[in-house]
Structure formats: structure tokens, C-alpha cells
Design goal:
This protein has about 45 residues and is mostly helical. Helix content is about 85%, strand content about 0%. It contains one helix and no strands. It has one helix at about 5-40. The chain is rod-shaped and about 60 Å long.
């Protein structure tokens, strides 16, 4: 990937970081839900 300017590179990195953060957040929610299901199953 060739960047035309530092600003463009920064904006792409920023957008990617935001995407990764939202993915991590949804993974955490999924793990939480799985743990709840696991506790229910063990009872």
C-alpha cells in the first residue's frame, strides 16, 4: 500500500484501530455470553 500523505496513512491506521477495537468488544460480549451459558449448563 502506498500512502499519498502522512494524514492519509494516519486516517487509515485510525480507522483500522477503531475496527479492531469494535471487534474486540464484540468478542468480549461473546465470551461473556458463553460463560453465562456454561454456568447454566453446569447447574
Amino acid at each position: 500500500m502506498i500512502f499519498h500523505s502522512h494524514r492519509q496513512a494516519y486516517s487509515i491506521i485510525y480507522a483500522t484501530a477503531r475496527q479492531i477495537n469494535s471487534n474486540i468488544e464484540s468478542l468480549r460480549k461473546l465470551v461473556r455470553r458463553l460463560r453465562k451459558d456454561d454456568k447454566i449448563m453446569r447447574k
